[in-house]
Write a structure and sequence with these properties.
The complex is a heterodimer of chains A (171) and B (492). Helix content of chain A is 38%, strand content 13%. With 171 residues, chain A is of the alpha/beta class. Chain A has a single domain, classed as Rossmann fold, CATH 3.40.50. The relative contact order of chain A is 0.23. Chains A and B meet through β1, α3 and α4 of A and α4, α5, α8 and α9 of B.
């Protein structure tokens, strides 16, 4: 264990400098604020992740934003275990029929005001699974989406920049 | 009573195809005898799927180096699960998706069909298996879990702290992937196969590429074969090191978790720099690879290997020095060697319980047939053994990649595409969690007629149910993480 501490001391911090929020994401969130008259949730957000049919690629990169390099918690963004504690639902996958009800129940269990973020190409437009009879359709057809973070899967830096838009947007 | 029949009896001078599989058409009685042969331990069940108007079963006998695909031209066919329990979920799934009828299926509850698909809606309740006894209570968990993981339902029956039964219900991330392959071209198939289970995207793409190449006689340049090996080992090391940390995290040892997460990030950043994608999605394609490794990239990978080799030893040293951590992992979540054998459990789940199977060794394929590495096994079958096998395997992967890089010489990375046509091929590739099997059938117009992919998880999920029995509820996350089965890969 001491070797870890020695390493940390000698090599310095592994954590990268904080990026600026993504410009397109800022714009999308600002638009959502205007159109849906949602008030800003503040500078600290609790996120509940829901996999609604992903291939688990997006989950791998969401895990990565919690690692010491990206360290999303330093921005006041943290992942919580229950939708009842959440301000933000972070949804991945093309939304399968088999997950639809669980997703809606999770949405309904999240107290208002709340944000919904569609993460990955599947959540945006079903990605390569578009047209499958087992898939309901893009997340935005099922619930109001405030922010899309695109990619297959989006790299961690893009996820961080996208989520930062939620706390930086001027409502 | 059906007499078990050994695969070896059926061969009768037949030759394997270019993919290493012998294809044999049988009648129902022989099919049933082969199923009984699985139960008697004469050979392993590797896959079971519906194709066209019939059923296929991949069987293997690793001692004799035999691999076969058994073909039965009937949709009403003798259930394999009636003799051999590991086939149960496969048969329930195929019944839901293709309407085939395994006669004598011991459990006729749907598996992937939750009664939600348009046109097939049903209000019927899913009945969990009955559990009787004094002082028992049930804990339903999921499909939405507390962590950032895939969805699935776990029904625990516990007596106080002790789990007396776990029953899984999966299928929540069923995306109808197999139906999307039908009629698609080979390129679209490549995109789909790489997204069946994102964590094994390289392994799936490789297995699919092998199968397509065998079907069409598509040559693969030597440099591409070496690069496939490099990518597959990077994928393996990333998940092994990440999961070792995640297991320790479930025992609240955050220091190891943070170290492992840094190492994992190092692998993914190197993959991004060398191949243009952190998970190397769509990098392996039929005929070769889509991304070359530059001279600078070779240097980067070598640097990574050095760092990983050192980190692995240090992480193991720290793990070994923490009795409070081992208190959680040793004797927790035991898989017996008998069960590992019966289910032909692949990957570290099998190898930690003494099953010395690794597709890279047993049914070896290039480039692994010419590199030196050891097959690492343990015998105790607990969380500790699975964790240590994975740490050992990181060391072997470092050895493998070093040898592959030494042998890289300039050359093309993709073979000339042959004329499209009819054909069939299958492949078994060792992903980080175990062997994945992919079978491809091409129609005469060169489009995909049927693709079936069997994740290693099909034969590991049921063992997790067994491993948890008698453990305390609080140790379930450790057990689960030490398996790290794929939901998406098994929900199709």
């Amino acid at each position: 264990m001491r070797s870890f501490l020695r390493d940390a001391f000698l090599k310095g911090m592994a954590t990268m400098a904080g990026p600026a929020p993504g410009a397109p994401e800022l714009e999308e969130v600002a638009r959502a604020l205007g159109e849906r008259a949602r008030r800003r949730l503040g500078r600290s957000l609790s996120i509940r992740e829901v996999d609604a049919g992903s291939c688990n690629g997006c989950e791998l990169e969401i895990h990565a934003i919690n690692n010491p390099v990206y360290d999303i918690e330093r921005f006041g963004l943290k992942f919580v275990a229950s939708p009842r504690h959440a301000d933000v639902l972070l949804v991945t996958g093309p939304v399968t029929w088999n997950m639809r009800e669980a997703l809606l129940r999770t949405y309904n269990a999240t107290p208002s005001p709340k944000w919904v973020v569609a993460l990955g190409d599947c959540a945006a437009n079903c990605g390569v699974f578009a047209g499958s009879p087992a898939v309901v359709g893009p997340l935005a057809n099922i619930m109001p989406v405030d922010l899309h973070i695109r990619g297959c899967p989006p790299p961690p830096l893009d996820i961080v920049k996208g989520l930062l838009a939620l706390i930086e947007a001027k409502g | 009573m059906t007499e078990p029949r050994a695969l070896a009896d059926l061969i009768d001078g037949r030759m394997a195809g270019p993919d290493g599989y012998m294809r044999i058409s049988v009648l129902p009685p022989i099919w049933e005898e082969l199923a009984a042969g699985c139960a008697a331990g004469l050979h392993d069940l590797s896959a079971l799927w519906a194709d066209g108007k019939g059923m296929r079963m991949a069987l293997s006998d690793s001692a004799r180096g035999l691999r076969t695909i058994i073909d039965l031209k009937a949709e009403d066919y003798p259930s394999v699960a009636r003799h051999h329990a590991p086939a149960l979920r496969l048969e329930r799934a195929m019944r839901d998706l293709y309407g085939v009828n395994p006669i004598g299926l011991p459990d006729t509850r749907p598996w992937l069909d939750h009664g939600r698909w348009p046109g097939k809606e049903s209000e019927q309740r899913y009945e969990f298996l009955p559990v009787e006894g004094e002082g028992l209570h049930q804990i339903p968990v999921g499909p939405v879990h507390a962590g950032i993981i895939e969805p699935g339902h776990f029904r625990f029956t516990a007596n106080g702290e002790t789990v007396v039964r776990l029953e899984q219900r999966l299928g929540y991330v069923h995306k109808g992937a197999e139906s999307l392959f039908v009629g698609a071209d080979i390129e679209r198939g490549t995109l789909l196969i790489g997204r069946l289970s994102g964590d094994s995207t390289v392994a799936y793409a490789w297995a699919y590429a092998h199968a397509v190449e065998a079907a069409l006689g598509w040559p693969v340049p030597p440099r591409a074969t070496l690069l496939r090996g490099v990518m597959a080992e990077l994928e393996r090391m990333a998940h092994h090191i990440g999961d070792v940390g995640a297991i320790c995290n479930d025992a609240s040892v955050i220091a190891i978790h943070a170290q492992c997460a840094l190492q994992r990030e190092d692998v993914l950043a190197t993959s991004q720099a060398c191949f243009g994608h952190r998970l190397m999605m769509d990098c392996v394609v039929p005929g070769g690879v889509a991304a070359d490794l530059s001279a600078e990239g070779i240097g980067r990978v070598r640097g990574l290997l050095g760092r990983l080799a050192t980190a692995r030893l240090e992480i193991q040293r720290v793990y070994d020095s923490m009795p409070s951590l081992q208190d959680r992992t040793v004797t927790t979540g035991i898989v017996s060697p008998a069960l590992a054998r019966q289910y032909a459990a692949g990957g570290f789940v099998g190898r930690a319980a003494g099953r010395a199977f690794d597709a890279r060794k047993v049914f070896s394929y290039g480039p692994y047939d010419t590199v030196e590495f050891d097959l690492k096994t343990r015998s105790t079958g607990d969380v500790d053994a699975r964790l240590l096998v994975r740490l050992d395997e990181i060391g072997e992967s470092v050895r493998i990649v070093g040898q592959l890089l030494d042998r890289l010489s300039p050359g093309p990375i993709r073979g000339e595409s042959p004329a499209p046509g009819e054909g069939e091929g299958a492949a078994l590739v060792e992903a980080f969690r175990g062997d994945v099997f992919v079978s491809v059938r091409l129609a005469s117009d060169g489009r995909l007629a049927r693709v079936h992919a069997r994740d290693a998880s099909w034969f590991q999920w049921p063992l997790l149910e067994a491993a948890v029995e008698g453990n305390i509820v609080a140790d379930f996350p450790l057990c689960n993480k030490s398996f790290n089965c794929s939901y998406s890969g098994a929900d199709l």
